[in-house]
User: Fold ATP/GTP-binding protein from Streptomyces viridochromogenes.
Amino acid sequence: MDFNGSDTLPGPRAEDQLPHTAQSAAKIVIVGGFGVGKTTMVGSVSEITPLTTEETMTQAGIGVDDNFGSASKTATTVAMDFGRISITEQLVLYLFGTPGQQRFWFLWNGLFEGALGAVVLVDTRRLEVSFDVMGRLEERGVPFVVAVNSFPDAPRYALDELRTALDLTPDIPIIECDARRRASSRDVLMTLMRFLHSLAMTGSRT
Ligand SMILES: Nc1nc2c(ncn2[C@@H]2O[C@H](COP(=O)(O)OP(=O)(O)O)[C@@H](O)[C@H]2O)c(=O)[nH]1
Ligand SMILES: [Mg+2]
Assistant:
């Protein structure tokens, strides 16, 4: 980056300014296994240019990151994705896409701090990855919904079959999505917001 010899950082861009009507903000995390579509989802739904820390996969990741089913993927998020979406004129969500790879779990404690809820993105070719992620959310008492990202070559199951396979209790919402589509990703977030609202109404947390 060229700072023209100045040691000051560029100021915020106009598109990054919060609407003046915004009154409350919530932190939402988007978690899931490697290559499941977290960066894609944050990118498709964010109203600001998302920040993404990606690095080209190196030898260091080979054999460590389970690459099955994502052979064409050459970049992986090492830190996180960050985006923002206004749900209403008053409510703004800050989105944090977090790596599911085991070697980045040390980042998780901080990333979950203050999170209102989570979206667990699931790839039906690698359901087993989701168990660890969901277990960690449960440990930390972060409520979540499950979004099944429909890849064309992934086996398709009925949602209640997936609910059973993932061992989800009946109250946890599970929906299909296409993380590349803004409307679909937005639906996922709205499902989470409705779920959080219903938990607040009943006074319970998962
Ligand atoms: N067909 C299809 N491809 C997707 C979808 N979401 C993501 N992808 C592709 O899957 C690859 C991995 O997605 P990425 O967002 O980088 O995964 P991440 O590791 O979870 O951040 C990319 O090449 C995306 O273009 C989806 O809903 N459908
Ligand atoms: Mg990513």
Observations:
- The chain has one domain: 20-202.
- The beta strands are 24-32, 51-56, 75-86, 91-98, 115-122, 144-149, 174-177.
- The chain has a mean pLDDT of 81.
